[in-house]
Amino acid sequence: MNFLVFLQAAEGTAKQGGNYTFLIMILLIFVVMWFLMIRPQQKKQKELVKFRESLKRGDKIVTVGGIYGTVQEVKENTLLIEIDNNVKIRVDKASVVRDFSEAQQQ
Q1: CATH assignment of 56-106, given 3.90.1150.10, 2.30.29.50, 2.30.30.30, 1.10.540.10?
Q2: pLDDT, tens digit (0-9, with 9 covering 90-100), for 17-56
Q3: What is the 3-state secondary structure (H, E, C) of 41-64?
Q4: Which of 57, 65, 67, 82 is least surrounded, with the fewest CB atoms within 10 Å of its CB?
Q5: Per DSSP, what are the bridge partners of residue 81?
């Protein structure tokens, strides 16, 4: 009888150790996801915001919709873009994704 009590006690501590191992593995998976997926995306987003804030007249840009143009006027939230001779459109700053000169190099 004492031997059975001893086995049950040992079995209980083994299960508890397994729970800690499971929690450590979940935590490790979260940390790996953070460094491989979330952190680089946040860095890319910060660079994009910095690019949008630094736009000035004469910059060649590409919008989310694939419109290539040259910045003619910069306001707080909008840009006036010349897409052809005497053809200008106003777009939201958030729709600008990259510099056109970079797109030509790629």
Answers
A1: 2.30.30.30
A2: 567 888 899 999 999 988 888 889 999 999 999 999 999 9
A3: HHHHHHHHHHHHHCCCCCCEEEEC
A4: 65
A5: 71, 89
Overall pTM > 0.70: no
Contacts of residue 71, defined as CB under 8 A and 6 or more positions apart, other chains included, come to: 55, 56, 57, 58, 59, 60, 61, 79, 80, 81
Which residue's structure tokens are 């290539």? 68
Residue found under tokens 């004492």: 2
Which residue is it, tokens 């958030």?
Answer: 94
Query: Would you say how long the chain is, in residues?
Result: 106
Instruction: Report the C-alpha gap between 101 and 103 in whole angstroms.
Output: 5
Q: What is the pLDDT of residues 81-99, one digit of tens each?
A: 999 999 999 999 999 988 8
